């Protein structure tokens, strides 16, 4: 079983549209398990129209809670709290739940052992059925952190099912950027497809995410999306890749049918045979051979 993760240096590069197209193409040739690891803004389900079959809570952290019966209002918790999350009182202190970061400093310093750390549900993760294969995805509640932990959960569940069912490929739609969720999404991947756009920051964004995949030893391929909207910038990206000896998986031209396909909830390769769909078919052929080698 191979793992292919799709990443980009920033959001809005068309990563999810490309992930949906690759899911459509790969599923016609092999057994596939999908994971939407962009848990902060999951949207692969908008194209794949999944049917949810499992739903699980996700606990992302803890919040301090002071017992009024045990608190003697000594003020130690207020002194050690760096987030101004303790509300003083004449008889007992309380915790501002919105300000508490769950560091547990008050829990460890309270001389009366009046403070407990209460686990909080930060989101949900799901297993769904799609026409291309099982999909694992998640929803992180607004304002919640630990998205890297949730990404790990989504990927772990997807990988376990892929191994149990003898799937050929785990296709991961990763988060944008270079943060903790990207590291979680890249863990254990056999290859990373880095989606870049020919913009002013295109090479810089690509360089940042490439540094992340290089650090973790994940081989990379680059796909230039909307390559014809700025040929000079596209050439700049290609020159960067040649210098770094990074193979180009393809160049996808700007194609209005991509937007129409998304509006109709379809991967572009299942919706029309325009230039973008043809370029993505060539890119998939490139990736398929690279994963086999």
Tell me about this structure.
The relative contact order is 0.20. By secondary structure, this protein is α/β, with parallel strands linked by helices. 38% of the residues lie in helices and 28% in strands. A 9-stranded mixed beta sheet has the order 3-6-7-2-8-1-9-10-11, sandwiched between helices. The chain has a two-stranded antiparallel sheet with strand order 4-5. Helix 1 crosses helix 11 and helix 5 runs parallel beside helix 6.
Salient structural properties:
293 residues; alpha/beta; 28% strand
Q: Mean pLDDT across all residues, rounded?
A: 92
Describe the sheet with the most strands.
9 strands, mixed
Along the chain, the helix and strand elements come as EHEHEHEEHEEHEHEHEHEHHH
Instruction: Tell me the overall shape.
Output: elongated
Spatial strand sequence of the major β-sheet:
3-6-7-2-8-1-9-10-11
The amount of helix comes to 25-40%
Rg from C-alpha positions? 23 Å
Total number of beta strands: 11
Euclidean distance between termini CA atoms: 13 Å
Secondary structure category: alpha/beta
Strand content: 25-35%
Show unreliable segments: none
The total count of helices amounts to: 11
């Amino acid at each position: 079983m191979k793992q292919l993760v799709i990443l980009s240096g920033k959001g809005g590069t068309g990563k999810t549209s490309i992930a949906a197209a690759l899911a459509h193409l790969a599923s016609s040739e092999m057994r596939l398990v999908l994971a939407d690891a962009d848990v902060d803004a999951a949207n692969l389900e908008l194209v794949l129209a999944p049917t949810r079959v499992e739903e699980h809570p996700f606990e992302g952290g803890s919040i301090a809670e002071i017992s009024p019966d045990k608190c003697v209002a000594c003020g130690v918790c207020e002194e050690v709290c760096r987030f101004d999350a303790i509300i003083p009182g004449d008889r007992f202190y309380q915790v501002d739940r919105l300000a508490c970061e769950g560091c547990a400093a008050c829990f460890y310093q309270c001389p009366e052992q009046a403070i407990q750390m209460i686990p909080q549900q930060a989101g949900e993760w799901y297993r769904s059925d799609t026409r291309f294969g099982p999909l694992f995805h998640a929803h992180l509640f607004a304002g919640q952190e630990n998205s890297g932990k949730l990404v790990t959960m989504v990927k772990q569940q997807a990988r376990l099912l892929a191994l149990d069912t003898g799937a050929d490929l785990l296709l991961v739609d990763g988060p944008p950027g270079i943060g903790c969720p990207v590291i979680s999404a890249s863990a254990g991947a056999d290859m990373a497809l880095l989606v870049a756009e020919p913009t002013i920051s295109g090479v810089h964004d690509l360089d940042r995410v490439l540094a992340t995949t290089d650090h973790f030893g994940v081989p990379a391929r680059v796909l230039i999306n909307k390559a014809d909207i700025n040929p000079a910038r596209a050439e700049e990206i290609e020159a960067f890749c040649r210098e770094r000896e990074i193979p180009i998986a393809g160049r996808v031209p700007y194609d209005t049918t991509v937007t129409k396909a998304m509006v109709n909830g379809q991967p572009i390769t299942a919706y029309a045979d325009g230039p973008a769909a043809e370029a993505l078919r060539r890119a998939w052929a490139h990736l398929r051979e690279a994963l086999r080698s």
